[in-house]
Write a structure and sequence with these properties.
The complex is a heterotrimer of chains A (about 180), B (about 240) and C (about 550). Helices cover about 30% and strands about 20% of the residues of chain A. In chain A, the strands form two sheets. In chain A, strands 2-1-3-5-7 form a five-stranded parallel beta sheet. In chain A, strands 4-6 form a two-stranded antiparallel ribbon. In chain B, helix 2 packs antiparallel against helix 3. Classes of the chains: A alpha/beta (about 180), B alpha+beta (about 240), C alpha/beta (about 550). Chains in contact: A-B, A-C, B-C.
Chain lengths: ~180, ~240, ~550
């Protein structure tokens, strides 16, 4: 990472509850320091429509559950130097992947959500991206460089990992990473 | 009681302990904690989880500290890159084997597997998860078993047999299909031998056996076996 | 006994019909019946004995029939041609040439010690065994001290044939020295590997060799009770052994005051229920005691704390069948066969893509090439040799370049294979090495007892990765996953099953990595075994 230019950072929200992004914001006043070193080039928190090229670090929240997210993840990986899985959904599948225990869970989960509770015109919507058979953590699809587990990960842990990465060091996760 | 003592080295520290002591115990006595999951004081050693594997100089073999007795002149290493790597793989295998989702688990923050992953820095699982859908039995008045969270350490089986003395719990099937069962594979609520003593829930390292409606920190009293054994031996 | 000898010698000819599990499906029992009828028809039943024997060794061309004297071996005998053999060979003295088995290198390079009586004696007659010098070893050892017997064994250099190759004499010394009593002997006949049939054949062909071996062991270590642990899937071997035990008891070779000496030893059969892991030495103990066949950590070693926490000697039946020979002929005589560090012979079940499959017994130190190409006669149909899997489902896959290594415990381990149960499977160019590794991994997943994490959970994940690769979803990182987890399973498992289970994976990765890469990168399987839908849920 070059020292004079600001580090280009992005965050992405796939199938998750946005709790990881909340936790990111919970870095509170440390965000001010962070802002001196980074530029947030893409995020649900900023208004950029297209994922840019040449991103240094991307944090991704959420599991990959549908085809749109699958395409997005591949695009992000192609445009990012360091990819970080943020939170349990991205790292393990977590709640998003609870459906995986059922066979044909892609259909089952839609029917449970749209057909079973409906009183009128019960139908599975067709205008939304197709669900994958299983919700998957990111590293089962693309290469992931670092992991920040937690549901959500503690703001301190997010801050620690970012600080280490910005300093050009690999974070040490012994005693720090915690699922759930 | 005449006991012979044995001198050895553990992580470079000179240790003297009674003959027949396990490496695990001898190490613990000098403050060296070797990671374990299936082992529990007060119960017989099992040797199943393989987290406590240690190196002994002079042989390429690895030894489970929980079942290997100390020997004179042994030079034991409890931490090395290889052991660290293997322990991380073991925890990953356990996490991938069934359905472990900490965020929705009753034992979140009181789980030995979760704590072990934290301690060893297992920040992801390299294996594709199995997403098991094993049977959950909540037919008992208050004890519940969720076999999706079971790591087959058999602590529950051992405490039921060796401490409570009823042997309600045991295993059926083999390999990855192994399951903890009650009596001859009865529903827990129909078990005629279970005394509802809760020791299985107390010692379970994960959230597989728990007491419905009870705060988990009240349930998990993992030193119960050690405590009872100590009391029983008091004259 | 003298009367019995005369009875035997009264026959001019002896027709041995192999009625072991290999030849029976080919119709051996019908052939036996046809011979019995034919000798009566030609009126030669007084000079020609028709005997039902164990395996003659040419399993691929059964039913096999051996006519003595002269060692004439007939192959693929049908009931229709039996009359011809009796008429020409027995009555006229002219062997039927077109049915004779060509005694090529298949027999020349073999050295039959353990299988000395296989196909020559009727296993259901103890007299047959005694006529071949059987129970002579027992007689001889009863006049010696137990220590002298152990010394003879140490001198022989015999190592356990169950797979691990622990020196037998040393094991006996350990059990003999153990203070506790009573002591037990367990003969391991739980041959669970697919495609392996050496122990079964031995029990079917020469049950008394096993019993005599156990008796000598019992005398040497001071045991009074023994168990033969045998799989229920071996009905013929069970029947043969039961008969043999009854006969030995009737002749005071088993029971109280054996041969009118103070030595006593009792023998019982115990049946396995088909679990592969039950052949592991601590699991076998649990099973004999009537518990779940689960291995337990060692120490304590069975030599000090085995069956019911008493000193126990566990020995593979092939090891035991060697014992009478060693006692009769001396340890030094035995040590002349094989290599200095690895004496004697070894039985192998030679199967797969090979011209002469069958049960073979070769001297230790023979090369794999000799076994595959001379004894086995090479690969059929002009196909190219690809690999040989040595040691059963947890053995190693070795390529052509390693065929010149000698067969002994240490050389095999060095290249990633094991002696194991003595299974040798030859693979030709039509075999896919990835598929082969997948197949044996799946076998071990099913057979893992589930006690320890690496074997239970690790093998199951290996199977997943193979599923991925052979379905076309493989990634290069999968190779790392395979390598890392298989070395953990090897080093971290509790018992021999887990420790050796990843051998096919480790060796195929070592010697045939290009095939993995081809599957992963090009999604191509030259052998045409992979990328077929297995009816499972697609990967993604």
């Amino acid at each position: 990472m070059s020292t004079n230019a600001k580090v280009r950072v992005a965050t992405v929200w796939l199938s998750g509850c946005s709790g990881c992004h909340m936790s990111f914001l919970d870095q509170d006043e440390r965000l001010v320091d962070l802002a001196k070193k980074i530029t947030l080039v893409y995020s649900p928190l900023v208004d950029v429509k297209e994922f840019p090229e040449n991103v240094d670090v991307t944090l991704i929240e959420g599991a990959v559950a549908n085809e749109e997210q699958l395409a997005m993840l591949k695009k992000v990986r192609g445009r990012t130097k360091i990819l970080v899985s943020l939170g349990d959904c991205a790292v393990t599948g977590n709640v998003t992947a609870l459906r995986n225990s059922w066979r044909h869970s892609d259909q089952a989960v839609l029917e449970r959500a749209y057909k079973d509770p409906a009183d009128l015109n019960a139908a599975v919507p067709t205008a939304v991206p197709k669900l994958l058979i299983k919700a998957r953590p990111l590293h089962e699809i693309v290469k992931v460089d670092f992991y920040i587990p937690g549901c959500p990960p503690h703001a301190d842990l997010i801050n620690y990992v970012l600080t280490e990465l910005l300093a050009g060091r690999a974070p040490v996760m012994e005693g720090r990473s915690k699922y759930g | 009681m005449s006991t012979n003592t044995v001198k050895l080295k553990i992580d470079g520290v000179d240790v003297t302990a009674a003959e027949g002591t396990t490496i695990l115990k001898a190490a613990k006595d000098v403050g060296i904690i070797i990671p374990t999951l299936c082992s529990l004081e007060g119960l017989t050693a099992y040797g199943g989880c393989r987290l406590c594997l240690v190196e002994v100089s002079g042989t390429p073999k690895l030894f489970p500290a929980c079942t290997t007795p100390i020997g004179p002149g042994m030079d034991v290493t409890t931490q090395s890159d290889k052991l660290k790597e293997y322990r991380k793989i073991a925890v990953q295998l356990l996490l991938a084997e069934r359905t472990h989702i900490c965020s929705v688990c009753v034992a979140d923050d009181h789980c030995e597997l979760q704590a072990m992953a934290n301690q060893l820095g297992v920040d992801h699982v390299m294996f594709e998860r199995n997403w098991s859908r094993e049977e959950i039995d909540s037919t008992h008045d208050f004890l519940v078993i969720d076999r999706n969270r079971c790591i087959l350490c058999t602590r529950c089986i051992r405490v039921c047999d060796q401490i409570e003395g009823v042997h309600t719990l045991d295993l059926k099937l083999r390999g990855k299909d192994s399951q903890v069962i009650m009596d001859l594979d009865e529903k827990w609520g129909n078990s005629c031998s279970c005394t509802s003593c809760r020791k299985c829930a107390k010692v379970c390292p994960v959230g597989a056996i728990y007491v419905e409606g009870e705060p988990i920190e009240h349930t998990k009293k993992r030193d119960v076996a050690e405590f009872i054994v100590e009391r029983r031996n008091r004259k | 006994m003298a009367q019995e000898l005369e009875f035997q010698n009264a026959y001019k000819y002896r027709i041995n019909v192999c009625c072991s599990s290999g030849c029976v499906p080919f119709g051996a029992l019908k052939v036996l019946k046809a011979f019995e009828d034919a000798v009566k028809e030609f009126g030669v039943e007084k000079e020609c004995k028709v005997a039902r024997t164990g395996c003659i060794g040419t399993c691929s061309v059964g039913p096999a029939v051996l006519v003595e004297p002269g060692d004439y071996l007939y192959q693929s005998v049908t009931p229709e041609r039996v009359r011809e053999i009796v008429r020409d060979h027995i009555v006229l003295g002219l062997p039927v040439k077109d049915m004779l088995y060509e005694r090529n290198a298949y027999f020349k390079k073999q050295h039959r010690l353990v299988l000395r009586n296989a196909g020559k004696i009727d296993p259901s007659r103890i007299q047959d065994y005694i006529n071949m010098g059987g129970y002579g070893g027992l007689l001889k050892c009863l006049t010696d001290t137990p220590q002298a017997v152990i010394n003879e064994l140490i001198a022989s250099g015999l190592r356990g044939r169950g797979g691990a190759g622990f020196p037998t004499g040393q094991k006996w010394s350990l059990v003999a020295r153990a203070q506790n009593s009573p002591k037990y002997i367990v003969a391991n006949l739980d041959e669970g590997d697919p495609g392996v049939f050496a122990n079964r054949t031995l029990a079917e062909a020469d049950p008394h060799a096993i019993i005599e071996g156990m008796l000598i062991a019992a005398y040497a270590i001071g045991a009074e009770k023994g168990y033969i642990y045998i799989r229920s899937e071996y009905p013929l071997a069970i029947q043969t052994l039961q008969k043999a035990i009854a006969q030995a008891k009737a002749m005071t070779l088993l029971g109280e005051s054996i041969l009118e000496t103070p030595f006593k030893f009792d023998l019982e059969l115990r049946f396995g229920a088909g679990a592969f892991v039950a052949g592991e030495e601590t699991a076998i103990l649990a099973s004999v005691e009537g518990k779940r066949a689960m291995p337990r950590p060692r120490p304590p070693y069975p030599a000090n704390s085995g069956l019911w926490q008493k000193p126990t000697l566990i020995q593979n039946v092939e090891t035991l069948a060697n014992i009478p020979l060693i006692i009769q002929n001396g340890g030094a005589w035995f040590a002349k066969t094989g290599t200095p560090k690895c004496t004697g012979t070894k039985c192998f079940s030679l199967t797969g893509k090979v011209n002469n499959p069958g049960l073979i017994e070769v001297p230790m130190g023979i090369t794999l090439r000799e076994v595959v190409f001379d004894v086995g006669g090479g690969v059929p149909d002009g196909k190219k040799f690809k690999a040989v899997l040595v040691g059963g489902p947890s053995g190693g896959c070795l390529p052509d370049t390693l065929l010149d290594i000698p067969i002994d415990y240490d050389s095999l381990v060095k290249v990633g294979a094991i002696m194991g149960s003595g299974g040798i499977v030859v693979l030709d160019e039509d075999s896919c090495m990835v598929d082969t590794a997948r197949f044996f991994t799946e076998f071990c997943v099913d057979e893992s007892c589930g006690k320890c994490t690496p074997c239970r959970a690790g093998l199951a994940r290996l199977k997943d990765v193979f599923g991925k690769i052979t379905n076309g979803a493989g990634e290069m990182s999968d190779i790392t996953t395979l390598e890392k987890s298989s070395s953990f399973i090897r080093d971290g498992s509790l018992c021999g099953l887990g420790q050796t289970a990843p051998n096919p994976v480790i060796t195929t990765l070592r010697y045939f990595k290009d095939e993995y890469i081809q599957h992963i990168v090009e999604k191509r399987c030259d052998a045409g075994k992979c990328f077929k839908s297995r009816g499972e849920e697609e990967i993604e």
